[in-house]
Amino acid sequence: MNEHKTETASKLRFLDYVVDYVEFKNNAAFDAEAVDIDFNIHHKVVRNMPDAYVTLRMNIFPDAAANNYPFSFSISATGHFQIDGDDSEEANNFLNVNAVAILFPYLRALVTTYTANANVTPLILPPVNIAKMLEKNSE
């Protein structure tokens, strides 16, 4: 039984995360019309083998007043990971994609919970193809 677990175990372990900051600003002048979700995600990876710290920053509805969005929302969270292996480019790419993919659902949940508690329509962010997003951001 342990053989199978060893064969399928990931070389990346998610240990914990912390919310660095949350900023919510309501737009009282919002004209109640439907809006498309506008958000961007940035990430930063700091490695100190075998530990890695991945910070995700997300801005939702930037410049709410100028763009007639219901609110603006910024959040940052940092995940603590451990990764087996070396510091090669392949290992770094693996870490970038997988650690961001692991951490992103936590931010999605925080956004939904926070907006629900702020007494606005709860915002449920769509799932994101992390590999494509990172590829697009690097262009």
How would you portray this structure in words?
- The chain is built from 4 helices and 4 strands, in the order αβββαβαα.
- A hairpin with a 2-residue loop joins strand 2 and strand 3.
- It has a 4-stranded antiparallel sheet with strand order 1-4-3-2, with helices on one face.
- The chain is of the alpha+beta class.
Key terms:
single chain; 139 residues; alpha+beta; four-stranded antiparallel beta sheet; elongated
Q: Extract low-pLDDT stretches.
A: none
Mean pLDDT: 87
* Distance linking N and C termini: 44 Å
Strand content: 25-35%
- Name the helix and strand elements from N-terminus to C-terminus, one letter apiece: HEEEHEHH
**Helix content, binned percent:** 25-40%
Largest sheet: 4 strands, antiparallel
User: Helix segment count?
Assistant: 4
Rg, Å, rounded: 18 Å
Total beta strand runs: 4
Order of strands, main sheet, comes to 1-4-3-2
Which shape, going by the Cα principal axes?
Answer: elongated
Structure classification: alpha+beta
Task: Chart the SSEs and their pairings.
Elements: H1 2-8, E1 12-26, E2 39-48, E3 51-60, H2 64-67, E4 71-83, H3 89-117, H4 130-137
Short account of what is shown:
The chain is of the alpha+beta class and 139 residues long. The chain has helices at 2-8, 64-67, 89-117, 130-137; strands spanning 12-26, 39-48, 51-60, 71-83.
